[in-house]
Every structure is written in structure tokens, then in C-alpha cells.
Fold each of these.
Amino acid sequence: MKGVGMAKRGFFAELNYQAQQAEKRQRQQQAAAGRAHDAAVRASDRARKAAERARLTAQRANEADRKAAEKEAKRLHVEAREAEVEEMNSALVSTYEEIDRLLETTLEVDDYVDLETLKAPAVHPDFAPGALAEPIRPPLAPALRNAPIYREPEAPKGLAGAFGGKKKHATAIEVAKAEHEKSTRAHQSYVVERTAEHDRAMEKHAAAEQDRLAKLAKAQERYQAECQQREVDAQARNEELTKFINDLAFDVPTAIEEYVGIVLSNSVYPDAFPVEHDHSFDLSTRELTMRVFVPEPSVLPTVKEYRYVKAKDEIVATQLTAKAQKDRYSAAVHETALRTLDEIFEADRAGKIQSIALTVGVNRVAPATGLPETVPLVQVAAGRDTFSQFNLADVVPVETLKHLGGALSKNPFDLLPADTGRGVRQQGK
């Protein structure tokens, strides 16, 4: 026997599912910020850091202070481990609360989906060209050395001028002028060379800047094209949504199935208890055939609490009793069944679905054959008029399912199949 595969979500159901998953992650992050175990995380971190500081202090302390420092380090280590245990237990309690409130969670919200709110304009990200937006800095003008200055040798004075000094002075002047001319020519060559280098750098800069502007223009063209495509896609989605709304109004079966998919995509389950759905609608009977797939019992956590054993410096887990595990899993299965019925009937304000034939089961690999199979744990049929009279806030889910004539597994935890031999429509007769 092959297991039943998961139906592919419709376009709008998938969009809505992804949005709900993102919102779920955001809610989890926001909730985590306010939960008590966050304080334990911070305390654990502080204690660990303090323990490390004390350990380092103990290493550096002199012999007289070493014992006291080591004692303090041990105390802080114990505090850190105890804070770690508190953090783990807080997270465990939060997980169990989510699983134990599957039905209560959906009763807190209205499951109706206003399809008009799914229409949305195109959302464009800001144009982000990165480095292309910044002009390339031009090269700085060269800092040139000053031109050489001619300084004429000082004329001889007194007796020095009378005894051949003038001739020597004239010779010195000729030498000084020659050296100045040589220095001037060298400086002129230096200026020409540096100026030519700067001109080449400016030409290179101009080419690079022109290339940047060309690339920026192309990036702008791509951005505009992407914006136009987003506008086209948004318009197409909104037009398709308008058609979907019209089809739903005229009872097109595929539209009804799509709407149910959107409703179910809003039904966000805990990470520790993931749920999948598959469904089909029969317009002639106005009945929705619903299949819900819950995780195997082994997926759920089994730890009751964690505790720190100081003598062994170990964190050990105390396991839940077998009865507690069985009771939690069975309750989750039964609450999932009622939650699904409630979500669909409540969301279907127009009353297009008059009855639901529901099966809740587990997809697994059969231990006897190694082949995939679906183990039914709940099979029940519910009419809109009957179900709408229940006050689900005060019911015992297993009793409600029995009241509806459902076939229930006698031991969901051990994956004992429900007796579905009579078929869902024969139950309760």
C-alpha cells in the first residue's frame, strides 16, 4: 500500500503559505524576546563569562589568593551550568505549550481570508548600484619642485679685489650661470615629464569614468526593466486573483479548493509538530474530502526536564513517562482533527462547503514491508450545521470526535490504525 502524497499548493495558497511562514518566524523571534528563557540565556552567558574571568584570575593569582580564586571559579561554573539548564527547560516548556494548545490557538483567530487583501502593488527595491554610484576621484595635480633660482657669487672686497679677485669672480659667475642653466634645463625636463605623467593619468581617469557612467547607465536600464517586469507580474497576479475571486463566487470547484488551500496555509503549526494537508472538493455533494498528515510520535520531544548533577558536572534528562507521551500525542492528533474542521467551516462564510470527510493519519515506511504507507488515526465526517453548534472552547476533543461518529485509533502513539472499514459515511449509523 502506497502512502498518500501531499498535494501541491495552488499559486495563491503557496504565496500565502510562504508569507505565513515568514510571519511565523517573526512571531517566534518576537515571542522569544519576551519569554523567560531569554533571561536565562543572558544569565547563562554572564555566568559563563564570569567563570572564565575567575578561571583566568585564578591562573594569575599568587599562591595566597589561588585557592579563593579557584573556589570562586567553581561557584561561577556551577551557576553557568544551572543557568544553562534553566534555559533548556524554559525552551522545553514553550515547545510543549505550543503542542498542547493546537485547538486553542486557532480559536483565538478568525480563519476567514479576505481575498481582496491579497491584491498588492509591485514593490520595488531601492536602486543600489553600489560603487558605480560614486565618481572616480581624478588624480591629483603633481606637486612640482620649485624652479632653481640663480644666485650670483658675491664680489670680492678690499685687497682680494685688487689682487686678481675680479677675474676669479668673473670666472665664478660664468660657472654659476652654467650650473644654473643646467639646473634650469633639468627642471624643465622634470616638469615636462611630470606633466606628461599627469596628463596620461587624467586620460586614464577619463576613460575609467566614462566606463563607470556607461555601466551605471546599463545598471539603471536593468533596474527599470526589472521594475517594469515587477509591475507586469503584479498586474497579472491581481488580474488572476480577480478571476479567482469571481470563480469562487460562481462555485468553480478548483477555486474552492484553492481557497481552502489558502486557509490551510494560514494554519501555522509548531516546529515540533509539523502538519501537511491534502484535499479535494465535490461540487455535486458540496463535500470536502480532507486528508491531514501529522508527524510520527518519534518526532515529538520526550524529555520531561533537564537537571544539573553537580557531582558529575553533567546535565541529565528526565524522560516523560510513557503515559505522558501517549496522552500528549493522542491529544495533539485529536485537536488537529477538530482544528482543521473548525478552520475550514469558519473560513467558508459563504457556506460553499456543507460537509467535510476528514482523515488524520501518519505517512511512514511500513516496518513489515519497507514500503510507504499511510496509517489512519482519525476518520470522521462533519456537517456544517451540526459542527457550527459546538462550543469548541469547552469540549474534550476525543469526545467530540466520538460524538460525530468518528473512527478513532485506540492507540495513536503506537500507530494502531483506526477501524475505517465502514467508510467515513457509514460512521455513526
Amino acid sequence: MARVGGRNPVISWIVGMLCAGVVGALLWLAVPAGPAVLEVVGNGLRQLTP
């Protein structure tokens, strides 16, 4: 990774971990919607075929 003047690598690492945690939490909250999304997509594909 390129060094940018005025950026503290420790703070960058902490913020990166916080961002990864937020993304992980959002994925964890989205997991229960997975089967419902698959059902909607499956029903849509079934209706396309004659």
C-alpha cells in the first residue's frame, strides 16, 4: 500500500477494521433474507419457462 503523507497507519488500520466489522454486521443481518430472496428468484424463473 502506498504511503500518503499525513496519514497515521495505526489509525488507518483501526478504521479499516471498524469498516470490516460494519460490513460483517450488515451481512449477518442480511442472512435471514437469503431463503426468501432465493424463493422469489426461483418463482420468477419458473414463470419465465413455458
